[in-house]
Please model this.
Amino acid sequence: MIRIFLADDHQILLDGLKAMLVNEPDIQVVGTASNGLQALECLKKHEVDVLLLDLQMPVMDGLETIMHALSLQPALKILILTTNDEGSIITSLFKRGAMGYLLKNSSKETLIRGIKDAHAGRRVLSAHLTSKMIESLNERPKPLQGQMPQITKRELEVIKLIAKEFTTQEIADELYVSVNTVATHKRNLFVKMDVKNSVGMIKKATDWGLL
Model:
C-alpha cells in the first residue's frame, strides 16, 4: 500500500485528487494540506511514502517544503504536480530531492503511474518536459539594459542563502537578523523580481547571472 499525502492550495483540486485516488487498491490518501507548513505538521505525525506537492502555495512554497520534508522523512518520495513547465525549475527541484515532476493536465493514468514509479524510486517526468530541460541548459537569457531592478547587498545575500537551501530561520541566524526581517527581504524581492515564490526567485536570479 502506497501512503500518499496531497498538498495544494486549491481545495477543488485537492478534493478531485482525493476522489480520484481513493478507489485505487494500492494507494491510501493519508491526508491533505493547503500549504507547505500544514503538510510538514502532518508529516511529523504520519509516515508517508509519496508527497504529491504543488509548487506555488501560500505560507510556504513547494521548494522550501521539499527541503524540510526530506529532513523529517528522508525516505519520502516527492512528486511535484504543477502548471509550471519551465525547464530550469525542473532541474533545480530534482537537485533538491524531488523524485518527479508532472503537469496538472496529466491524465489519471499518467498520475497513478507516476505515483507508483516515484514510490519505486524511479524518476518521473511529463513526456514533453525532457526537451524543456535540455533547452534550459543551453539558454540563459540576460535582462536588457534597465530591466534588472536594483538588488541591495543584503537582498543578494538572502538570494544566495535561499539557493543554498537555507531555511528562513537559518538565514536569520546566518545574517544576525530576525525572522521577520528575512521575511520582509523575501517579500521585497518577490515584488522587485516579479516572482511569486522562491522557485521563481532562484530561476530569475540564475538567468540574471546573480548566482
Observations:
- The longest helix spans residues 179-193.
- Residues 40 and 152 are 32 Å apart (CA to CA).
- The chain has ten helices and six strands.
